[in-house]
Amino acid sequence: MDSIEKAMLARPHGPVRPPPLTPVASPPAEDVIERMAHLPMGSPDMGVAAAQRAAKRTPRSVVLDFERIRAAGFLIPDTQRSRIKEEYRHIKRPLLINIDGRGATTVEHPNLIMVTSARPGEGKTFTACNLALSIALERNRTVLLVDADVNKPAIARTLGFEAELGLVDYLVDERMELADALVDTNVPSLAVLPAGSQNYLSAELLAGTRMRQLAADLSSRYADRIVIFDSSPLLMTTEAGILASLMGQVLVVVEAERTPQSQVKATLDLLDSNRQIVGFVLNKFRSLFGVDSDGYGYGYGYDSDDGAPERKGQHAG
User: Fold this and answer.
1) CA-to-CA distance for 237 and 226, rounded, in angstroms?
2) pTM assigned to the model
3) Kind of pairing, strands 190-193 and 183-185?
4) Is the C-alpha dihedral spanning 161, 162, 168, 173 positive or negative?
5) Domains of the chain
6) Contact 90, 297 (CB under 8 A)
């Protein structure tokens, strides 16, 4: 049993037959978020019992404070319907369709998804965390959320826990097992790989053989696994471009009325549209009536930027 298998031990890896995917425009009255495994009806969180189960899978586990992250604008795994849950159902559905090979384009490693932006402050970490939380609530999926913004990590702080070891430590120490860096959560299908220690050779580490092997193993080992990477902004660091070369799908967060079109184009120029599926989330969109919208817009292709974004003031990264 290798480090990948040990890290994801006790997660449901066998084939699970999901119900047919529901079109985004017409979500059912009750879906996987409300039917989440192990979540009692009406319960706001999964408490100590889930954390104890998680502790058996990896050396570290945390209990996410759902009330805290709800107050910060994140979706949480309860039985209540909310607008942000609906928004992320729309965002995640095309990604899942591509992973299942039913999209218009097929790519290698479609279950490796990088969330990025042109520059800091556009909402990429907020988007990555919510996307991971939403997909983790699908019955037939497991999610690994990776903080790959190794120079300015934010996942652990955003979700409310402290982390020492992480991705960089794993890449530096070839004797280290991935299980030693993973953090399990009280969301049964969600684990987090923090960024880890600072290292002045972070770009070289991400470009190295060990990172390529890790990405390939994470992508291919289990059919139900989806890996979401919160990366640094593409126009700010070389690390983001290196990481993008390993991805099957890239989700670019664009802040409405602030990110110049030239920066969006420069960001796209750094991506290989022949090897990757590129999606967009338009953030902080202002409606035609001058009222801030509470939603996200999502689309594929260079010219797809319609819709409405994240709540103003409730984003990170």
Assistant:
1) 25
2) 0.75
3) antiparallel
4) negative
5) 3-10+31-300 (3.40.50.300)
6) no
